[in-house]
Amino acid sequence: MTKVITYGTYDLLHYGHIRLLERAKALGDYLIVGVTAEDFDKTRGKINVQQSLMERIEGVRATGLADEIIIEEYEGQKIDDIRRYHVDIFAIGSDWRGKFDYLNEYCKVVYLDRTEGVSSTKLRSEKHAIRLGLVGETSDLRKFRKESGYVNGAVISGVCGDEESEFQDLLEQSDAMYILSHPDVHARQIKAALEAGRHVLCESPIALSVQECEELFALAKEKKCVLMEAIKTAYSTAYYRLLLLAKSGRIGKVVSVDAACTRLEDEANVYPGQFNRSWGSLCDWGPTALLPVFQLLGTDYAEKQIITHYADEAKAYDAFSRVNFVYKDAMASIQVGKGIKSEGDLVVSGTEGYIYVPAPWWKTDYFEIRYENPANNKRYFYQLDGEGIRYEIVAFLKSIEDGRDNSYVDRHVSKAITGIMEDFYRKKDVREI
Ligand code: CTP
């Protein structure tokens, strides 16, 4: 019996897939189809796959061409599969020509001509092209614009600054807005966008008072629009996995979270003489640094203290801030700096060990779990593509498409972040130095 194996994502199954499977099957007597798991697809750069793994497997099964369906989960698995299933022929579309020649050592490799004119990418972009308007300084938006290019289903409809008329024009031409403007104007811009029925992805903090934050989420609900807070770190695979490991008790009970984010940057040069327009350390870095605190320990802290150091006499620009939290049975501390540098690492301490993420932890692909006995330490590596931004965009588009909340930042976390900003600006629990 001649066994043939082939692999693919098979998203939105189309004629090109069926033709490929038919020809692969005709090469032998038994066809195994490997369907790629979502995580694995992410690392290969296939973004915004529309169907879940189960739906894609169902699609392949419904063709009646596969004798066996397996899931492809890791790099190097093809060699394992070929050996395990005693495969004679590996078949794949001609778009991969040459890429799998290394498998010739294990079986025969056949490249089959790809069907012209059809692909999942094409179907995805035709089906769900969401027009995305970008709000903010062009230079700040560069990264987001680049990352959106990796995501199927979004087209940039335009860019505008804070100018009211420009903003209104862009709203007209867009289905959704990405807002990276000064935090002072976030709430106003979000409100205008939601009132016009546009979905919103806004950099954190989305508002500067808890009441405003609640009103915005209520308005989004009323208008049946998505409102998502953008904190890219929440979407980095390494960060997300460390949350899961900590929550599953790998370091025992979590008793402390310490996070630092700092950057050397002379803000006075960015906004000469306009400290009131500048964007200090707590408002800029705070949401990112607060994320692991609130996601691991919750938002129900008993007390907090904000200690802040201003760079200017008018006390409009905080260059360095620390926030200490006391919980019922845990504690946390964040340190943020803009213009003052420190070690930007993250430490999550537990009763059985601790998680250490070296600087810059907010865009890491690596962390360690450390124990009393170093021989038990474990290192974890994950691919980090686009600092998490492209997965954030995928989550936003998915929320728009399926009407469900796919955000990795819960509302109560958004509210708690806004609460810290509000207290800071109202000088509640603040010690100034
Ligand atoms: N395939 C094909 N002809 C097409 C599209 C795909 O022969 N028009 C083949 C691919 O070469 C591969 C298999 O079908 O062997 C599964 O492809 P997959 O990557 O899932 O589909 P694509 O449509 O190529 O997806 P994408 O656009 O996301 O790359």
From TrEMBL:
Record has Oxidoreductase as a keyword: yes
Annotated Cytidyltransferase-like domain residues: 5-124
InterPro entries: Cyt_trans-like, Gfo/Idh/MocA-like_OxRdtase_N, Gfo/Idh/MocA_domain, NAD(P)-bd_dom_sf, Rossmann-like_a/b/a_fold
Keyword terms of this UniProt record: Oxidoreductase
RNA-binding found in the keyword field: no
Residues covered by the Gfo/Idh/MocA-like oxidoreductase N-terminal domain: 165-229
The family this protein is said to belong to: Belongs to the Gfo/Idh/MocA family.
Protein name: Gfo/Idh/MocA family oxidoreductase
Species per Swiss-Prot/TrEMBL record: Laedolimicola ammoniilytica
